[in-house]
Amino acid sequence: MNLEMALTWGLSFVLGLFIFLFIFRIILTWYPQVDLNRWPFALATWPTEPFLIPTRKVIPPMGGVDMTPIIWVGITSLLREILLGQQGLLNMLLF
Predict the structure, then answer these.
(1) Which of 20, 36, 74, 93 is the most exposed place for a label (fewest CB within 10 A)?
(2) In terms of Cα–Cα distance, which of 35, 2, 21 is closest to 77?
(3) How far apart are CA 34 and CA 89, in angstroms?
(4) Is the dihedral of CA 24, 27, 29, 31 positive or negative?
(5) Distance between CA 62 and CA 39 in Å, rounded?
(6) Concatenated DSSP letters for 35-80?
(7) Are 83 and 12 in contact (CB under 8 A)?
(8) For residue 58, which phi and psi values (nearest 5 degrees)?
(9) C-alpha angle 73-78-81 in degrees, rounded to nearest 5
(10) Helix axes 68-84, 3-28, angle to 10 degrees
């Protein structure tokens, strides 16, 4: 396995992991009584919160519903497709 392929797989893994964590955050919004700083919920909170805090300043919760994890699922999915999709930029440059 060459360096380019390892970089592509690593980036794909990281972006996929963030998509999963943001989806988990969406599910956690259905349970407001859950303490997000306790194990195992903190595993989803700590890496995603730095992205969600600035986004909440731009798009505050509407009617008690936090839309920011949904927005970040879309952003991360789009970024993954643009970079690593079948006709993604990295695939066109590296392969």
Answers:
(1) 93
(2) 21
(3) 40
(4) negative
(5) 28
(6) -TTSTTTHHHHHHHHHHHHHHHHHS--BTTB--HHHHHHHHHHHHH
(7) no
(8) -85, -45
(9) 125
(10) 160
What pLDDT, in 10s, does the model give residues 11-37? 999 999 999 999 999 998 888 888 888
7 to each of 87, 93, 95, how far by Cα in Å? 17, 13, 12
25 exposed, middle or buried (CB, 10 Å; 0-12, 13-18, 19+)?
buried
Averaged confidence pLDDT in the chain: 89
What's the chain's length in residues? Answer: 95
Cβ partners under 8 Å of residue 67, min gap 6: 59, 61
32: its two tokens: 């407001």
CA dist., res. 82 & res. 34, Å (int): 35
Structure tokens at 69: 């994890």
